[in-house]
Design goal:
Elements lengths: L15 H4 L7 H14 L2 H6 L12 E11 L3 E10 L2 E2 L2 E10 L2 E11 L9 H11 L1
């Protein structure tokens, strides 16, 4: 099976080891594995890999793509492709991660709907667009 994180790699060689307990060595790999976990409905993994309490998982979403725009030591800027009831609900997020007891955890993120994204997406243009919308 191809990995749901859109890496074009086999799931068994990509995100599955993280879902089975191997800690993700980078925040980018953790972010990819979390996208896969959302796609596969792995709520336990999502709870384990974030700092805050996880609410109920959204139902009826189709995961249509993942693009990593930029990854830094503790941040990942990405575009998540999603459809809900036939409607595009894609978004971009600048996620922040922290290392806790030697493992990466999702801390929080700033999101923008895909319709609000700048033409050229970088960390800086994303942050500027978010400031303009707040």
């Amino acid at each position: 099976m191809t990995c749901p994180c859109f890496s074009k790699r086999d799931y068994a060689a990509c995100c599955e080891p993280f879902h089975k307990g191997t800690p993700a060595p980078t925040c980018e790999q953790l972010m990819r594995s979390r996208y896969s976990a959302f796609s596969l409905g792995l709520a336990g993994y999502l709870r384990k890999t974030q700092l805050e309490e996880l609410g109920p998982l959204p139902q009826g979403r189709r995961f249509t793509g993942l693009t990593i725009v930029e990854a830094r030591k503790d941040e990942v800027l990405f575009i998540a492709g999603l459809e809900e009831r036939g409607r595009d609900v894609s978004f971009a997020e600048l996620s922040r991660f922290v290392k806790q007891h030697g493992e990466w955890k999702y801390a929080d993120g700033l999101t923008l709907p895909a319709s609000q994204l700048p033409v050229v997406l970088t960390r800086e243009t994303f942050q500027e667009a978010a400031r303009c919308l707040s």
